[in-house]
């Protein structure tokens, strides 16, 4: 490996424009595709195989009229005033009529008229009319909070059987109810909900914007505030200006580490090239594959971090070879790619394996995240091994200034490694207290993990100044908190030839109404064949409450009295049920995922370090750091500790896929530092240093660049904490804190303490296994031997 990379690096150095032109052409192709295809991302997160998704798929196949997307608009009056004044009612009715005449919007009045004129023979049309007219049970309220386009949660209140008189009712104008509108009894808020003829992600461009423009007209001179649901908003890519601050910090650290603006600029160029091709390529194909808005952001996070770090490792190695061995920039570049480049290759491979482990879960949006991020990391590795030496060829000897070159090796080494040398000697001397203290501190930080709750962010936890939070609170006050998390019930007879009669449907409504924590049950109708009935259930509690989760489980139970008494099977779906299923599914597969990436990575580390202890130690250290990371993330985002520092108003559950996603990324990145730090210790051991001396010497050689790389990575991830998207906030925080703990506590302190504790035994490997394992030559021994033989022949 090292010999091949050495030759590749020298070839790129000698003929830089071939490699530079090649990568520029690739970037140009990506930009061209992006311009032609455009960008198409969504907020959809489909969970194949879950109970809620199976129900949605069945509805879409058997009853497409009930699977069209839904949206809503919440109208609020100024504090202490009412909406049902003549002027305000005229404005609201006018806006509603404008929405109903738009294409792709179901107009319940037209459907009802068609049914009355004989179109009722079309059972599908009749069902559409019934679902749209059923006076507004709650699905629109759900859309107001989550913007989900899983919009088959059709609900209504026709035939609703509330346990007591609710604090709301249909909006009555001229003695007739306005289709699709509910109003609170105190007149402070009104909820307008409507249904599309297709799913939101299938709507032509501009339809949602037309709806928003129509409802926003009510705000003109009336004092009314219109809050459209998130499903009417164009999905935004949560990337802002805050990420620039991370790059600025990275640039400063690079200049301080490399001592040259020219040298510091190269890692930034490499990283930007990598994410430009990787993230740009993801956007370019987003029109052809389903891609969530979080996917490219994750690739951007990881791509920037590893791109800068990998280039830094190679450039730093080239400069050290020039300083320490007096090599020319040409020869030093080839050797840097051959030695540090080998470590870069295997470090990148570990990250890719950790990310691709997400594929075993079988959830499409997580798989897409993993693939896009993995490709971006792979591109950064290739660019670091080819484009970087080409750029070094253009820079030439200017990579090191004449003044820096004239410094003596001893003085430069003493000056650069004074702090690191004192630190590692102290760690080695007091290794037992250091190990005990680190385990105790990280164990304490991990305590909140026991109370960690998983879910999806909702309006209840959004910041106070957001429309999602304002809408959530207004709906809760006017209609009840359960309206923010309605459930869609699909009933099917157990007998394949059976049907659900109106009497059976009515009895189902009555029985479900008696279930604990049910507020309102609304029948929506039966399909043409009479073998699928649809009902809406409004819980008493909010979408993230434990009581709502228990309600979903009670309704699904095959042995429930409702299912047995009516000989039916009840399926539960809706955005709330999907979130519940997501948390359960991810919790189930998490141990499998961790097992897969740990086993594969242990094999790679075994091949790289040729040691039994080192891979095990690396994995145990990572488990300590990741538990502490989740503990601190729980304390900040769930318990609200110091949350104001990070722009969070209210605590809430962590995203369902945070544990899996962050574990995979952190494992890969943590192994990066493990590879670069411990491979330096092994190199010292192979070249004659023994016991603690190999630990100290290897630490001195690698610590400076590893610290710089960790600071850069923390800065890049921390830049995403201050975005407006709560999902990106949580991911950015967890990754920044995780790298901070793993790099500076585990790798910089715990690793040298344990390595010094075991001494030379840390490199023990059974002889039979040593003979079986291929020699990857990460330290470059074969390369050095070949170069010495070549130099001897030339002499």
Element layout with pairings:
Layout: H1 2-14, H2 16-37, H3 51-62, E1 70-76, H4 86-100, H5 108-116, H6 123-133, H7 139-146, E2 168-173, E3 176-184, E4 189-195, H8 207-216, E5 225-228, H9 242-258, H10 261-284, H11 294-325, H12 329-356, H13 364-395, H14 402-405, H15 409-429, H16 431-445, E6 454-455, H17 467-479, E7 487-493, H18 502-513, E8 518-526, E9 533-539, H19 546-556, H20 561-566, E10 568-573, H21 575-609, H22 613-637, E11 654-655, H23 658-686, H24 692-718, H25 726-758, H26 767-772, H27 781-794
Shape type:
elongated
- Helix-residue proportion: 55-70%
Uncertain residue segments: 118-163, 412-416
Strand order of the largest sheet: 2-3-4-1-5
Strand content: 5-15%
Query: Into how many domains do the coordinates divide?
Result: 3
Rg of Cα set: 31 Å
What is the overall pLDDT average? 80
Task: Report on this structure.
Strand 2 and strand 3 (176-184) form a beta hairpin. Residues 118-163 and 412-416 have low confidence and may be disordered. 54% of the residues are buried. The longest helix has 35 residues, at 575-609. It is built from 27 helices and eleven strands. The chain has 795 residues and is an alpha+beta fold. The protein is elongated, with a radius of gyration of 31 Å. The two termini are 27 Å apart. It folds into three domains: 1-37 and 240-407, Multidrug efflux transporter AcrB transmembrane fold (Up-down Bundle); 51-234 and 467-578, no CATH class; 421-445 and 610-764, Multidrug efflux transporter AcrB transmembrane fold, CATH 1.20.1640. The strands form three sheets. A five-stranded antiparallel beta sheet has the order 2-3-4-1-5, sandwiched between helices. A four-stranded antiparallel beta sheet has the order 8-9-7-10. Helix 9 runs antiparallel to helix 24 (692-718) and helix 21 (575-609) packs parallel to helix 23 (658-686).
